[in-house]
Amino acid sequence: MARRWTNDLTLADATPEAAFWNRRQIMAGLAGSGLAAALGTSVQAEEALDPNTWEEVTNYCNFYEFGTGKGDPSAYADRMTTRPWSVTIDGLVDRPGDYSFEQILGEMTLEERIYRFRCVEAWSMVVPWQGFELADLLNMAGVQGGAKYVSFETLYRPSEMPGTAYKVLDWPYREGLRLDEAMHPLTMMATGIFGKPLPNQNGAPLRLVVPWKYGFKSIKSVVRVTLTDQEPPTSWNMANRREYGFYSNVNPDVSHPRWSQASERRIGGGLFAKRQPTLMFNGYGKEVASLYEGMDLARHF
Ligand SMILES: Nc1nc2c(c(=O)[nH]1)N[C@H]1C(S)=C(S)[C@@H](COP(=O)(O)O)O[C@H]1N2
Ligand SMILES: [Mo]
């Protein structure tokens, strides 16, 4: 990839002393992208990238393999064995195989990125991730010319995953991206949060993070990555295709059939918690809108 995305925030910026400088950076970015007007006031923009706390990020989770409650993953995910771990990379690649987690880490450049994270259930967080670009992993395996999509699978190990006893989803959990979305420099494979290895409930030892899409696209505890020439089936789309489309880009103008996506509730914040407007592409429009030029995003939701 010729173009590498550069982070506007680092973990160090999340410290109180750096907060003022950090917010200036954010505002500059928003003004440049024309999002400041869409946001309405600068106060909302400032709040938008203030990271959540470790407690919020690790205790309010979605990981249905451990149960459907927000507290189930933190209660049960420590049952999951994450060593040894390997990722099978197969399909339309030059070097298919089982890559151990250690081998992958050895090949990748880790960096820190603070991203907005927006769940389809209309809550949001801001998380400081560590990880590498998915493009680097795909290039390691060598993407072949005919590849058009990437599909992902989560570990399916019922003995360690109490939630899989229930057929809420068709296990293993599956997700997919179009190849250009997968190769985009914003798309990362995270291995840590807040400078520490990923806790199991957040998808140890490695999970996808696609910041401009609803949270369910960011599949956890990945064991398989397959390059294909067909749009792959995905768990939420299979469960309910009217409610969960393949693209699932954050879009305030397209409501979920059962609720509005126009605003979101920021997790945490206590007394000052309030709803804020949902941003098109979760605020990453400047970087990703061009991927969808000419597409009807109400149809391809
Ligand atoms: N394997 C797997 N990945 C998953 C999920 C899941 O249930 N299983 N939930 C998704 C949803 S709906 C969201 S919002 C995010 C939550 O990530 P977090 O708990 O780290 O905030 O993980 C996504 N990845
Ligand atoms: Mo979600």
UniProtKB/TrEMBL annotation:
Heterodimer of a catalytic subunit (MsrP) and a heme-binding subunit (MsrQ). GO terms for molecular function: metal ion binding; molybdopterin cofactor binding; oxidoreductase activity, acting on a sulfur group of donors, quinone or similar compound as acceptor. It comes from Leisingera methylohalidivorans DSM 14336. Residues 81-236 form the Oxidoreductase molybdopterin-binding domain. Keywords: Metal-binding, Molybdenum, Oxidoreductase, Signal. Binds 1 Mo-molybdopterin (Mo-MPT) cofactor per subunit. This is Protein-methionine-sulfoxide reductase catalytic subunit MsrP. The keyword Nucleus does not apply. Belongs to the MsrP family. It comes from the Bacteria. It catalyses: L-methionyl-[protein] + a quinone + H2O = L-methionyl-(S)-S-oxide-[protein] + a quinol; L-methionyl-[protein] + a quinone + H2O = L-methionyl-(R)-S-oxide-[protein] + a quinol. PANTHER family: PROTEIN-METHIONINE-SULFOXIDE REDUCTASE, PROTEIN-METHIONINE-SULFOXIDE REDUCTASE CATALYTIC SUBUNIT MSRP. Transmembrane segments: none annotated. One of its GO terms (biological process) is protein repair. Mo-molybdopterin binds at Y64, E65, C119, T154, N202, R207, S218, I219, K220. Its EC number is 1.8.5.-. Gene3D superfamilies: Oxidoreductase, molybdopterin-binding domain (3.90.420.10). Its cofactor is Mo-molybdopterin. The gene is msrP.
